[in-house]
Write a structure and sequence with these properties.
Elements lengths: L9 H5 L2 H32 L2 H10 L4 H7 L3 H4 L2 H19 L6 H29 L4 H30 L2 H22 L15 H5 L1 H7 L2 H15 L2 H4 L1 H7 L4 H25 L9 H13 L7 H29 L2 H30 L4 H29 L1 H4 L2 H8 L1
């Protein structure tokens, strides 16, 4: 009789040198990205005095990633993933340096900023595809939790630090610092990761254009994979309160400090949720909880129909953010492990690109609705929509687990299910 497997700890995961390299690289990139977004906003507004052009520039830091997710993530399957990450980091650093050059025409700034956004998906896809090779077994989900916690923290520090730094120095200096973070990230990846061959080689390697749709066909032809991808996209719909934080705060009678509290709620919930999940939820049951956590994410949002005040709203969003993070983290982990390695980067690129797109559309739709009803009511409507969309996905996911537990559950749990 064997004892229960010991819980994987954060220290154990951080003890793996390759994970530390990936972690430091991502931390630097995210901090630099957030710093650059603040710097670009200040730089463009100072030079154009146009809120519209400033908003356009900010949108370009996100929008072109949709095209990158469709056309470029397959590169991380066709070429060694470490090399893809290094090349992307070098290119992004050089482009940001060009943006920092004085007197660059605005249209050139737009092209350069859009190019950086275009290159983000192959880096992210390479990273997500490498993680299961670096972290085996239950270490993988713990590593995903660490990533989530540090990503949220880096985003907060990047925005806050960016504002303080740019108040003291020229925005172009901040852009040069962003370029330096890309260079440092490239060094961590190049010298911190082992050299691995490309995943798609020989007969597995299709032509570039034939491979573009391979990930989509693979994911959407399978009920379980399709359900997991839709779960990840659905989690991008829920945090609509971030995009309408200003009108929501005004509806509670709060000012700028209230907006900050509302924006901090989701990252705080994410950190708490990821920590509790990896510590207290056994690995054997985690995949079974994706549907439950997704549905529960919507419940706090529905309580906004009651027009809660600021403090109650922040608590609701902390709870929703924590549950949503856990659902997204586990759905992403299950998807990553279930996809063949030669198609993993493209499949993860599809999942991440869809998530980013939904996260961009959610506040847009939320803003339109909030112009007709109160912001609190808008969040409640999104909660109802989220729950309605979750129920059929949860049923499909449970059916897949029951039908093929050996594919979706840890091996020991799957054997028990068959027994």
């Amino acid at each position: 009789m064997t004892g229960a497997p010991q819980r994987v700890t954060f220290r154990e995961v951080f003890g793996i040198a390759e994970f530390r390299a990936l972690w430091f690289a991502e931390l630097l990139s995210i901090f630099g990205d957030q710093l650059a977004r603040v710097a670009l906003s200040v730089l463009v507004f100072n030079e154009t005095k146009s809120a519209t052009l400033t908003g356009l520039t900010y949108a370009l830091t996100y929008a072109p990633s949709l095209l990158g997710g469709i056309f470029l993530t397959g590169l991380a399957d066709r070429f060694p993933r470490r090399d893809v990450m290094v090349v992307v980091d070098v290119l992004r650093g050089l482009i940001i340096l060009l943006v920092a050059v004085p007197d660059v025409p605005f249209w050139v700034v737009c092209v350069l900023v859009g190019s950086v956004s275009l290159l983000n998906p192959p880096f992210k896809a390479s990273q997500l595809a490498l993680l299961p090779q670096v972290l085996e077994g239950d270490r993988f989900i713990v590593g995903m939790a660490i990533r989530n916690m540090t990503v949220q923290s880096a985003q907060l520090l990047g925005f806050a630090g960016g504002g303080l730094l740019i108040a003291a120095v020229d925005p172009r200096v901040a852009l040069m610092l962003d370029a330096a973070t890309f260079a440092a990230s490239a060094l961590f990846v190049r010298f911190g990761l082992k050299s691995r061959p490309a995943a798609a080689t020989g007969e597995k390697r299709k032509s570039f254009f034939a491979s573009i749709g391979q990930g989509g066909r693979l994911v959407f032809a399978n009920s379980g994979l399709r359900t997991l991808v839709l779960f990840t996209w659905l989690m991008g719909l829920m945090p609509v309160y971030e995009g309408i934080a200003a009108p929501y705060a005004a509806g509670t009678g709060g000012g700028p400090e209230a907006i900050g509290l509302l924006l901090a709620a989701d990252p705080l919930g994410s950190v708490i949720g990821a920590a509790i999940y990896t510590r207290w939820v056994p690995a054997a049951v985690r995949p079974k909880l994706i549907g439950w956590f997704s549905g529960l994410t919507a419940v706090p949002l529905m309580l906004c129909f009651l027009q809660p005040g600021l403090i109650v709203s922040v608590l609701l969003f902390v709870i929703s953010g924590g549950l949503g993070t856990v659902a997204l983290m586990q759905a992403t982990a299950s998807l990553t492990l279930a996809v063949p390695d030669e198609n993993r980067a493209q499949a993860m690129g599809l999942s991440n690109t869809g998530l980013t797109t939904v996260m961009g559309l959610s506040p847009l739709i939320g803003g339109i609705v909030a112009d007709q009803v109160s912001a609190q009511t808008t969040v409640g409507i999104f909660g109802v929509a989220g729950l309605a969309l979750t129920i059929p996905l949860a049923i499909l996911w449970q059916r897949n687990i029951s039908t093929r537990p050996e594919r979706w559950l840890p091996s020991e749990t799957a054997r028990a299910e068959h027994t």
